[in-house]
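When time allows, look over one protein, given below as sequence and tokens. The question is which stretches look regular and which look disordered:
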Amino acid sequence: MKQKNYVQIRRNHKCLWIEHADSISCLAVSNGLVYSGSWDKTLKIWRVSDLKCLESIKAHDDAINGLVTENGRVYSASADGKIKIWNSIQGTNTSHFLKRVLTGHKDVSLNSVIVCENGRFVYGGGSDGYIMGWEENQGSGDWNLVCEVKAHNMSVLCLCFMGDYICSGSADKSIGIWRREKSGGICNVGFMNGHEGPVKCLQASLFSVGGGFLLYSGGLDRSLRVWWVPIEEEHTAVKNKKKLIDS
């Protein structure tokens, strides 16, 4: 193997450029490609059909914590306090360039990222407990800060959304439900408590019986919970429907 195909990693070990040198922290899938983000600060692009690594990008100055894809763009959130937006080069979806950098609070890690309304709004959850949101100006392509809310007493570890609602999981063991306004701002409509440890992951799905949606939460307490979130005109009532797993 040629020397140029190796990269230096910690403890003076070497690995191939197609390999991550540290833990893979997040994945995203789109258009036959898998995107992997790592604590080694790199973003790698893999072809699904043969799992070949097509591109490796030195994306951030610190660990990558979150990835999402939308309309040909890749959004990466990092412990360096930035969300970076990557576009694919025209005519190919295997080569990417940095399009825009969204900067959070100083010395604050961004732990998660979500994208709403076909890429119009981007939200990140920070280690200072804030949820920050940006809106893209469709004319100029500039991004403006439209949301800056102290959502939790401790780090926001995960975000997900369902329609006009954003859900946040935190190291303070709570889950926040937020209604997204047309301007991109968010308004709190309730908190859910039940986990005995930090809430690390969230996913939502529509609920056909009674309307609203189901919210699934996984915590460092080793439990998985499912919540019913009814959608009402004025407010959202949140109920703990059932603890699925506690082991």
Notes: Residues 1-12, 241-247 have pLDDT under 50 and may be disordered. The chain has no helices and 22 strands.
